[in-house]
Amino acid sequence: MPDASILDVFPAPAGDPVVIEHTAEEFTSLCPKTGHPDFGVVTLRYRPRPAGEGGVCVELKSLKLYYQSFRDEGIFYEAVTRRICDDLTAAVSPAWLQVITDWRGRGGIRSRIRAQTGEIPPEYRGP
Amino acid sequence: MPDASILDVFPAPAGDPVVIEHTAEEFTSLCPKTGHPDFGVVTLRYRPRPAGEGGVCVELKSLKLYYQSFRDEGIFYEAVTRRICDDLTAAVSPAWLQVITDWRGRGGIRSRIRAQTGEIPPEYRGP
Amino acid sequence: MPDASILDVFPAPAGDPVVIEHTAEEFTSLCPKTGHPDFGVVTLRYRPRPAGEGGVCVELKSLKLYYQSFRDEGIFYEAVTRRICDDLTAAVSPAWLQVITDWRGRGGIRSRIRAQTGEIPPEYRGP
Amino acid sequence: MPDASILDVFPAPAGDPVVIEHTAEEFTSLCPKTGHPDFGVVTLRYRPRPAGEGGVCVELKSLKLYYQSFRDEGIFYEAVTRRICDDLTAAVSPAWLQVITDWRGRGGIRSRIRAQTGEIPPEYRGP
Amino acid sequence: MPDASILDVFPAPAGDPVVIEHTAEEFTSLCPKTGHPDFGVVTLRYRPRPAGEGGVCVELKSLKLYYQSFRDEGIFYEAVTRRICDDLTAAVSPAWLQVITDWRGRGGIRSRIRAQTGEIPPEYRGP
Amino acid sequence: MPDASILDVFPAPAGDPVVIEHTAEEFTSLCPKTGHPDFGVVTLRYRPRPAGEGGVCVELKSLKLYYQSFRDEGIFYEAVTRRICDDLTAAVSPAWLQVITDWRGRGGIRSRIRAQTGEIPPEYRGP
Amino acid sequence: MPDASILDVFPAPAGDPVVIEHTAEEFTSLCPKTGHPDFGVVTLRYRPRPAGEGGVCVELKSLKLYYQSFRDEGIFYEAVTRRICDDLTAAVSPAWLQVITDWRGRGGIRSRIRAQTGEIPPEYRGP
Amino acid sequence: MPDASILDVFPAPAGDPVVIEHTAEEFTSLCPKTGHPDFGVVTLRYRPRPAGEGGVCVELKSLKLYYQSFRDEGIFYEAVTRRICDDLTAAVSPAWLQVITDWRGRGGIRSRIRAQTGEIPPEYRGP
Amino acid sequence: MPDASILDVFPAPAGDPVVIEHTAEEFTSLCPKTGHPDFGVVTLRYRPRPAGEGGVCVELKSLKLYYQSFRDEGIFYEAVTRRICDDLTAAVSPAWLQVITDWRGRGGIRSRIRAQTGEIPPEYRGP
Amino acid sequence: MPDASILDVFPAPAGDPVVIEHTAEEFTSLCPKTGHPDFGVVTLRYRPRPAGEGGVCVELKSLKLYYQSFRDEGIFYEAVTRRICDDLTAAVSPAWLQVITDWRGRGGIRSRIRAQTGEIPPEYRGP
User: Fold this and answer.
1) Residue A4 CB neighbour total at 10 angstroms
2) pLDDT of residue H1
3) Chains F/I: 3 or more C-beta pairs closer than 8 A?
């Protein structure tokens, strides 16, 4: 089951904060209604707070294990996107953070869901 | 014939509202002048009102059945785009909502029509 | 020879006006200097005035015939773009209207020309 | 050697000025340090002044010959971009004008250089 | 080991400053935790100060050698991006400067990191 | 319901027989189990018998109408492919004929079915 | 755990046997050494025996469920490919059958494995 | 009207004969039934006879003018392909010659027609 | 330095031998003349001998480490391709084996080298 | 002027001969009729004779300089292809050798020319 305690962090590099984007192309969870597997791509984008203010970055291997913890979870597209956004926000307390999920369609319909924390700069908003 | 009563909804997830996009690649209706089939791609994008204000999301399978109800309908590109926009707006009362249809050309001309409800954020507008 | 009287219109759908885009991939005219044929793609994009104010849309088949009427016309890239823009503006009196032509190169140079009527919203401007 | 006197112009079409873009995919000059040939794509984009104010457009064949006049010139990426921009500005006195050059890499690095004259509208700026 | 002293510069061309972009598709360093090689694409984008104010451009061959000096360096994605940004800023004192690194994924996750110096114009920001 | 009597033919051109391929990108029928629409691309490839032996070609508009006659038919992928192959073979008595159908997946699986009449030359066989 | 008894079949259509291809883009199993998930695309291609000889086709929904039964199985690329090939061969007793699996890389290496039953026609062999 | 007398030739180069391919992306003729323009891509491929046996190549500019002579001709896909093949064969008396035409669809169907003279080597046959 | 002793193997699966392909997209070695890094993609394709005759497969992680052992080696394109082919042949004694290397160009020229062991089936040969 | 004496060679690697392919994407010569520059891509493919029989490979930098020596040469597509083939054959005395040139079109027609020495294996022949 999804486990945010897996998430590990390390201090952000000194100097003007970078913007970080990690795209996981192999996310899978289960449809809560049918039990069939869903497959998606999860993009995480955020700006850590400055190093001098205790800013941290998420460690890449822990992020992968966190994503894997959804493998047996029955959860809707909208909810899983919101949850990843909330868990990562709790883990890194970023200046801002954004989660975009892309799902290969069911019944000929493919979907993209966006969730966010804080004020996303215009250049990182949709579509 | 098109039947908006098919549309089903569920409560939006708690927290900051997500932006939701569903792209149906297999839409077909009929040309009202010639009776020949039209084939298009329908993109629906919206932000539900917050969960605390009764915000809802459209259920994916009901959306698929709603789109299928246009299969025998003779209707112009512009009208079908406007109608889907109006029917979905009635069903989910969103903060904002957008419908974009893309049509494989007739006579060497392909078309895209956009309709909307409410104030679309700049990053989700055209082209 | 180009004949704007071919253009036919129908009333815009009721409600918030849609944005309409028609892309003709098979446009051909003649180079006025050499007489050799030019081949281009013509994109027309416009927002009709509201239905309640007499807003109209261009009928697709008449648009196709109008474009075909340039087949034997010797005319420069810049002039044909301007003329299509002016003729369509006269035909539909839109809120705004935009014509973009893309030409397969001559002498290793390909070209794109843009003409417009009214105030184009930022999201529909270049490049 | 580069020869701006080759550039020929013709009057801009009447009415609201168009935006014109010519992309030459077969530009070659020489590296001033090694003498080896450089190969690039040159994009020219500009808005002529209105026809009523004496606005002119660059003639396409003369533009091609002007580009060919760089074939034996040893000149840096940055300088050739600046020079084309200055020569064309002198030839057409545009409302604004932009030159973008794209160079197939040397040593595994490819480059893009942008130069401009006047105030470029936001929609035609980078990246 | 990374060596910024390799970086060589030359005077910016006279006139309105150009915007310069160099994309190195063959960057490699080492993961500081596992010692395994990382492979990335490094995009550098900057506007030199005007020639009249002593503005300079980075010389392309020296840039290549500078990038090669990371080949045996164990360094995180975030840190290498920040360091290249800082080293180049020191070398060319630009009006603004931006470094974007794209990394082929590890564990099914690919990453993009952005660092910057000065005020980046909106058209050169993300995503 | 599917109606092969719609198919019209015209005499093959004189001389060495041509090979003819028509690709219909907008085919739709119904799943016989669920009633849901299926969407596919149908490729027809054949060599008519020589004109001197009474060889004929299928007329394009009649082919389109024939395909449209499947719109309300519940029929499996394998059966519709076989049937189109048999109906066309009956209509044009070709030297050889081939039908390939490509179906956008159901349940994350997409399919291609091939049927044929006569001896297909090696260069026109799979995959 | 993988369960071939899920596989269901139906009689092949009468007439010259078709060639059938099903591509499942969402296959996942586990690495037997690390327990980490593997993600692949599985292509099944076969020719059923003629209907008159008892030839059968695999039913699509049962194929999907069969693939899903590998979700918790620790199994090597080579073994899973061999096993799917053997299970399907047992289920449909085809004239010939081929399984191709494509795996998103681990450690920067992506893989393709091919297994087969019977004599594959040349046009359906690699690469 | 189509005029094969436009076609000009020059002697094939000495030595082992080359294989020559010219692809014209801007061919247009008229539909003989509706009078509407057709747009296609014409690929010509041939091997001239050896220079020592009087082998010749078609001159490129004359080929272009020959293709342009179809601009006002009402002619079916199959017939125009056969005619170009016959005219070119008469003009260059090649060892073998092949014409492939690709047509942007009408009514959602796109077409490819192949005609040939002599024995085409296997590697230049379909699909 | 390149070290074939790193290569590890495991028994081929029982039954008809599979064909195995591993594509490493991140190979780097050094140019023996200039010392500059080369970057390439290495594709390994082979058929193991049958399991009953002692056939083995190369273990994926050991293959990755073997490739990494070329990182500091100065070696020509042709020689590294030949060497990888020879080392893998020694390690797995395959029925046949093929190595294809693709190199991002130097001086505007990109290269592909092919080496092989045993009789490669036609469908796995070039280009 | 073209100068085959620039071509340098080195001994082929020991063992079963490799197949070598070099693709030069930046070739330019002049049209002998108009003097305008032509731009093409030149692909060279060959198998050297075995090392034990004195087989040699062409050195990459000398190949680049040899190609550059055509920069000011007025020469037809067919002739330049034949000449490169003959010059390289003289330089490396290969088992077989093939030259393919691809030319960005003139007058809307692009061209590919193939020349060869010796018996080209089927898998390396057209189209």
Assistant:
1) 14
2) 81
3) no
Name the residue of chain E whose CA is nearest to I39's CA.
E26
CA–CA separation, A101 vs A91, rounded Å?
19
The minimal CB distance from A26 to the residues G68, G71, G104 is found for G104
Token couple for J12: 């082929």
A81 at B interface, C-beta within 8 A: yes
3-state secondary structure chain D: CCCHHHCCEEECCCCCCCEEEEEEEEEEEECCCCCCEEEEEEEEEEECCCHHHCCEEECHHHHHHHHHCCCCCECCHHHHHHHHHHHHHHHHCCCEEEEEEEEEEECCEEEEEEEEECCCCHHHCCC
Task: Return d(Cα B82, Cα B2) in angstroms, integer.
Answer: 13
For residue F105, report the phi and psi dihedrals to the nearest 5 degrees: -60, 155
User: Which chains form contacts with chain C, at 3 or more CB pairs under 8 Å?
Assistant: B, D, H, J
Q: Which of I8, I31, I86, I102 is catalytic?
A: I31
Q: Which amino acid is at F61?
A: K
Q: Check if D69 contacts J (Cβ < 8 Å).
A: no
Q: Which segments in chain D show pLDDT lower than 50? A: none
d(CA I111, CA B94): 56
Q: Are F64 and G1 in contact (CB under 8 A)?
A: no
Strands (E), chain J: 9-11, 19-30, 37-47, 56-58, 96-106, 109-117
What is the Cα–Cα distance from A125 to A120, expressed in whole angstroms? Answer: 7
List residues of A with catalytic annotation: 31, 38
What type of residue sits at position A20?
A: I
Q: pLDDT tens-digit profile of A57-87?
A: 999 999 999 999 999 999 999 999 999 999 9
- CA G60, G62, G66, G71 dihedral sign is positive
Helix (H, G, I), strand (E, B) or coil at H78: helix
Q: Does residue D71 sit at the J interface (CB-CB below 8 Å)?
A: yes
Do G and C touch, 3+ Cβ pairs within 8 Å? The answer is: no
Structural tokens at position J42 = 């030149």
User: Are the beta carbons of A111 and B12 separated by less than 8 Å?
Assistant: no
DSSP H helices, I1-127, are: 60-68, 77-92
- ipTM of the predicted structure? 0.93
Distance CA E113, CA E122 (A): 17
Residue E93 phi/psi, 5-degree rounding, is 40, 60
> CB distance from C11 to chain B under 8 Å?
no
For residues E29 and E2, give the distance between their C-alpha atoms in angstroms, rounded to a whole number.
10
Token pair 């199993």 is found at: G29
Q: Which residue of D has its CA nearest to C121?
A: D123
Of residues A82, A79, A75, A76, the one with CA closest to residue A97: A82
d(CA H126, CA H124): 7
Question: In 3D, which of A68, A58, A20 has the Cα closest to residue E111?
Answer: A20
Q: Is the CB of residue H34 less than 8 Å away from at least one CB of chain J?
A: no
CA D91 to CA D63: how far, in whole Å?
Answer: 11
> Is the Cβ of G108 closer than 8 Å to some Cβ of chain E?
yes
Residue I72 has pLDDT above 80, yes or no: yes
Give the number of other CB atoms < 10 A from CB of residue I92: 23
Q: Which residues contact I73 (CB under 8 A, 6 or more apart)?
A: I1, I2, I29, I30, I80
Averaged pLDDT of chain I: 94
Q: Which two tokens stand for residue H127?
A: 């699909």
Residues of D with a catalytic annotation lie at 31, 38
Please, which residues have CB within 8 angstroms of residue H33's CB and are 6 or more apart in sequence? none
Q: What is the pLDDT of residues H8-21, one digit of tens each?
A: 999 999 888 899 99
Q: Count CA atoms closer than 13 A to I1's CA, side-chain side.
A: 0
| G31 a catalytic residue | yes
Check contact A-E (3+ Cβ pairs < 8 Å). Answer: yes
H36 vs C contacts (CB less than 8 Å): 68
